[in-house]
Amino acid sequence: MAIDAPEKCVIVVDGELPVGLALNTAAILSLTVGRHVDGVLGDDVKDADGFVHRGITSIPVPILKGDTETLASLVVRAAAVPSVFVVDFTRTAQTSRTYDEYTSRMSESGTAELPYVGVAVAGPRKAVDKLVGSFALYR
């Protein structure tokens, strides 16, 4: 599902992950949002020398933290809101060596059984805030 021009995008990462895995989770979720959500990336810009700098996100993307239970709940709750885009990242994905292994392993578990390590949500500000308003910033 693609949505147009979100007002807000947040990434929620399992606060218990080691820093390297947390950064990797945020990067993977960001790439997926950038691919699927129109209007997240701004246009390319030129500096005073005429050098072109590729467009970066045109909206802030705070990184929040949660635990595995709140991440699983967020996935289900966000999926039920038609105006938001949600993408999740699981420990299953994080520990798979290939995409084929990942897809095979994912087919063996139901949504509620998956070990979520990160979730990105993009959409209208009010809808996103309602979903993640109680989450703390990842520090």
UniProtKB/TrEMBL annotation:
One Pfam family this sequence matches: DUF2000
Protein name, UniProt field: DUF2000 domain-containing protein
Source organism of the structure: Amycolatopsis coloradensis
